[in-house]
Amino acid sequence: MDRPAGCTCRDISHLTDGIRAFKARHYGASPGLMRSLVEEGQAPATLMISCSDSRVDPALLSGADPGELFTVRNVANLVPPYQPGPSLHGTGAAIEYAVRDLMVDHIVVMGHAHCGGIKALIGSAEGKRMARDFINDWVELALDACRIHVGHADGADSRRPVSLELLKDNPFLVERAAIAGSIGNLLTYPWLKERVDAGTLQLHGWWFDLDTGDLWQTRPGETRLFPVL
User: Fold this and answer.
1) What is the chain's Cα-based Rg?
2) 64, 128, 187, 212 from 182: Cα distances, Å
3) How many CB atoms lie within 10 A of CB 69?
4) Which has the higher per-residue pLDDT, 78 or 145?
5) In angstroms, rounded to a whole number, what is the distance separating the alpha carbons of residues 85 and 191?
6) Which residue has the higher pLDDT, 163 or 114?
């Protein structure tokens, strides 16, 4: 499809072509799955909390079929602590619906290498806040996680400020600390923690290495990440 006269935006007609291919595959050749999802509703086993980064689509990376993942994506895959009130809580609303209504069995917090949100966090820690309306306050949700988890990773006292040089030289530590912090924040949601304590809900941390394609993940009940062999 040609661009309208005077348009300098990049063409996205291939995306609508992709929708047509999806329709041909899932509504034409093999309509059973989509029909059941419409008639019976969704029942995903997993809530995936991932970054908005275009390079790390969790459904594409995992090969999930329609109906398998209930997904919330935001900058740097962050989970704010439980704070009910009149403010707008997009991530909290998705978590609540997945846990209390869809009754998912797993929550995965998925971060990745070369995360722009984490770069913004490191810049903010240096006092170099971006000239933006929302990003700085959002990514600073992970500052405490950096202090606790990066401090431990470096063998430092977690009560002291983390070296800015350590953060700048090792952004992967910050990315992994943000995952650990989000897992910790999940446990501040009382109805979520009840299910974790009852053994009906499991929390997982994943970190995807864009350089190699490797996946790192946590072990049950832990926040430290290990490579998947």
Assistant:
1) 20
2) 23, 23, 9, 24
3) 20
4) 78
5) 16
6) 114
Q: Quick one: CA torsion of 82, 192, 99, 202, rounded to 10 degrees?
A: 130
pLDDT over 90 (residue 166): no
Strand order in the sheet with 202-208: 69-74, 46-51, 106-112, 202-208, 215-218, 225-227
- Domains for the chain: give ranges and CATH numbers: 1-41 (no CATH), 42-227 (3.40.1050.10)
**Total length of the chain:** 229
Least confident of 2-16, 160-174, 204-218: 160-174
What confidence tens digit (pLDDT) does each residue in 103-128 have?
999 999 999 999 999 999 999 888 89
Q: Which residues are part of the catalytic machinery?
A: 51, 53, 55, 112, 115
Contact 181, 141 (CB under 8 A): yes
Q: CB 107: neighbour CB atoms within 10 A?
A: 25
Report field, pTM of the whole predicted structure over 0.70 = yes
